[in-house]
Specification:
It contains nine helices and no strands. With 242 residues, the protein is mainly α.
């Protein structure tokens, strides 16, 4: 199991660096489009080829998933984002949380579905599903969150406090996504909708997203959401695996 985790993670970073380098050197894509987001997805697809004897099958879409589940995946990040927005208005941030109208914003929005899909093919479609039969849901979602966090390299220069709460935020995302997709065969589409909703909601906070105090609020709110989910769904997160 851990050999596969290591190979997947190594391939993920290889393609992150490769795609990022190609984008930077060729200028084929504007900087607003994060081509490197497809690093985890390409790594996950390669793992299917390298270890095809594992019989790992990704579930991209299932007609058995109720519409309400897709609606929840879209609305949960928006609802939590509104709570973060209200709290952010009350705390002394250097800037007011609001969206930024810019010439490149439409490029970001157009790319977001593809970027979210590229990540979720790897993180949920391959890695979390591969870990699930072998680890309790809590541990597997925490591990995926810990591995997922460092690829957000643009945030890592913001200082230790910022990075600490960013880590809590990413791990909390991973826990919530696990609760949504674990009984669907780790549906890539469902995870992508949640991921896309996170990114769209974060457009509300473009002015303050690099502020440590804002990240503290965001991280704490999402950690509470994840903790409540773990308590409510103890059978999902704490059930032992063979």
């Amino acid at each position: 199991m851990f050999l596969r985790v290591g190979i997947f993670y190594g391939l993920t970073w290889f393609f992150l660096i490769l795609l990022g380098g190609i984008q930077q050197e060729t200028g084929l894509f504007p900087p607003e489009i994060g081509l490197a987001q497809w690093g985890p997805g390409i790594a996950g697809l390669l793992m299917l080829l390298i270890f095809r004897k594992d019989g790992h099958k990704m579930v991209f879409f299932s007609k058995n998933i109720p519409v309400l589940r897709y609606l929840s995946a879209a609305l949960i990040p928006f609802g939590v984002g509104l709570v973060v927005l209200l709290i952010s208005i009350l705390v002394p941030l250097e800037s007011s949380p609001s969206s930024i109208a810019s010439e490149s914003l439409w490029l970001v929005i157009l790319w977001m579905p593809l970027g979210a899909l590229g990540e979720e093919i790897g993180w949920r479609g391959y890695l979390n599903k591969m870990l699930n039969p072998r680890m309790r849901g809590l541990f597997s979602s925490l591990l995926v969150g810990v591995l997922w966090m460092p690829i957000h390299v643009s945030f890592l220069a913001e200082g230790p406090v910022f990075v600490l709460f960013l880590t809590l935020l990413i791990i909390s995302y991973s826990v919530v996504i696990y609760a949504l997709v674990q009984d669907t065969g780790f549906s890539v589409l469902l995870a992508t909708i949640f991921h896309l909703s996170i990114n769209l909601t974060n457009l509300l906070f473009l002015d303050v997203i690099y502020e440590s105090l804002f990240m503290m609020v965001n991280g704490i709110v999402w950690t509470i959401v994840a903790a409540v989910l773990i308590l409510v769904k103890r059978d999902v997160f704490l059930a032992s695996k063979s």
